[in-house]
Give the backbone structure.
Amino acid sequence: MGTRSRTGRGALYIVWGNRADSVLRRSTTSLKNVHPELPIEIGMKENNDGLMCKANMFDLSPFAYS
C-alpha cells in the first residue's frame, strides 16, 4: 500500500482476527450514520502479526495525514 496516493479524510479501523466482528459492524454503522461522507477503510491483520505491526499503521491508511 506504500505507493498508493494518500488523499482526503476517512476512518481507518485496524482489526486483528475476527473476534470483534459484531463490534466492528456496530461501529462502522454508527460512523456511517453520523458521517456518511467519510470513507471507511478496514485494515486486516493476522493474530500472529503481533503488536509490533502497530508501528506501521500509517502504512495501512489510504488517507492523508500531516
